[in-house]
Amino acid sequence: MSGRKIRSEVCPEINRQNPIKMLRKPLFFISVLISTACFAQTKLGALFSDHMVLQRETEVSIWGTDNPDTKISISTEWGEKASAVTDADGKWKLTVKTTDAGDPYTIEIKGSEKIVLSDVLLGEVWLCSGQSNMQMPMKGFNGQPINNSNDIVLNSTNPQLRLFHVKRDMSDNPKENYEGSWKQATPEAVFNFSAVAYMYGSMLQEKLGVPVGIINSSVGGTRVEAWTRNEVLTDPKLGVKVKMGKSEMDKNNASVLYNAMIHPLIPYGIKGVLWYQGESNRGNHEEYKTLFPAMINSWREEWGLGDFPFYYVQIAPYGYKGKINSAYLREAQLHSLQHTTNTGMAVTMDIGSKGSIHPPEKREVAKRLLYLALAKTYGYKGILYNGPVYKAMEVKDNKVHLSFDYAPNGLFNFGKPLSDFTIAGKDRKFHPAEAKITRGKLVVWSKEVPEPVAVRYGWSNYLVGSLFNLAGLPASSFRTDNWEE
């Protein structure tokens, strides 16, 4: 079992034996005595270790294993105590209240052995998950860079920011064990850590002025089904038939990443989740409208922390090959924003890369996630945190006038040509359209469509977004119709 294991004594039962008498006993007897005496080990999961961050000002769970029917007691340097007795399987779990952020603390855990955790911080803990764009480290990968990575890494040392990377794993059944360790933010640690997760954590720590802990559990090229609990995917009420996977182990088999890389973390205290995934689900975008919210809600149910914040990144424009239009997946993500409680979506329409599915401008992605957290979770006022979202349309004089949420002071294009608009009449044939912003209002038209009934924006795999609110946050691709293609 991986994780924290510190022994105060080495096989104390052996130590109490008379060494002369021990030498006279048969080797078999000695080996049995050693194996049984050494069984008593107080163990913790890898998250419970030196340098960890516990969620502040709440109640957090701490758990582990020991001998069955063993008393476990916890004492914290900030004054909290708790105790329990292990069950028949040797498992135990305790709940401890945490205070506001402060100096590093120690936690003492006593069972068959005594464990002392040092340099423990109380602060804000966020879980970051998804596929390759969340996994992508500051050093880049597959020959693809992170913009300004060297300068960012150079200035990354921060004892108030701690990073935990969950080692990649898969399992057909929920696991209890996992591998990883808490590391203080240093150039060496940051170089190998998720770029989006690190930069979000760094900016959040600087803004709040409290310790921040970031847990990264992500795997490239993966579908949402792999991150979702089996019972959710097989529930007839889901209304979606999910292929449960290949006979051999594969990272996209249903539930295998949830089992190995999410389930073992539950119920570690977190403030919320950041999610960056979707590219691998382009082929089943309609099902994604159901699967993604189902995953969100099941994680919340499992953690038992209520509807915690769940902020995610809409996939960026990219020059996908083939006939599948990724705009439909972006629409599915927008649908989740509008139909799932306490969510937020960072739009990336303006920072995609036609030749790379891993756009290099990861700091802007992290910043947009930060805006969501500051405004929606931490109560910051006066900042916009969402790009414009299509609200309604009205036809006047053969032109379509569009209105938007999250654009209180109007729309702007910041010098970019307003492009990638199409318009259709009752025949449902779309034509390239002209667009104009006048005093913050958007109007779209085409001479080819004298009686327009529908407008689409950005309805393609790749484009450079040109529609923003005055805070510079881009609008999602959208359509006013719901026609089947």
Give an overview in words.
The structure is a single chain. The relative contact order is 0.10. The chain folds into three domains: 12-121, Sandwich (Immunoglobulin-like); 131-377, SGNH hydrolase (Rossmann fold, 3-Layer(aba) Sandwich), CATH 3.40.50.1110; 389-479, no CATH class. Strands 2, 4, 5, 7, 8, 9, 10, 11, 12, 13 and 14 form an eleven-stranded mixed β-sheet that branches. It has a four-stranded antiparallel β-sheet with strand order 15-16-21-20, with no helix packed on it. It has 485 residues and is α+β, with helices and mostly antiparallel strands. The chain is elongated. Helix content is 22%, strand content 26%.
N-to-C span: 52 Å
- Ranges with pLDDT <50 over ≥5 residues? 1-25, 27-39
Shape: elongated
Which class best fits the helix and strand makeup? alpha+beta
- What proportion of the residues form beta strands (DSSP E)? 25-35%
Features of the shown structure:
single chain; 485 residues; alpha+beta; Immunoglobulin-like; Rossmann fold; eleven-stranded mixed β-sheet; four-stranded antiparallel β-sheet; 12 helices; 24 strands; 22% helix; 26% strand
SSE arrangement:
Layout: H1 12-15, H2 19-24, H3 27-37, E1 43-44, E2 53-55, E3 59-65, E4 71-76, E5 81-85, E6 91-97, E7 105-110, E8 114-130, H4 132-135, H5 149-154, E9 158-165, E10 182-185, H6 187-191, H7 195-208, E11 212-218, H8 230-233, H9 256-262, E12 272-276, H10 285-303, E13 310-313, H11 327-339, E14 343-346, H12 362-377, E15 389-396, E16 399-405, E17 411-412, E18 421-424, E19 430-432, E20 434-438, E21 441-445, E22 454-457, E23 468-469, E24 478-479
Parallel strand pairs: 2-8, 8-11, 8-12, 9-11, 12-13, 13-14
Antiparallel strand pairs: 1-3, 3-6, 4-5, 4-7, 7-8, 9-10, 15-16, 16-21, 17-23, 18-19, 18-22, 20-21, 22-24
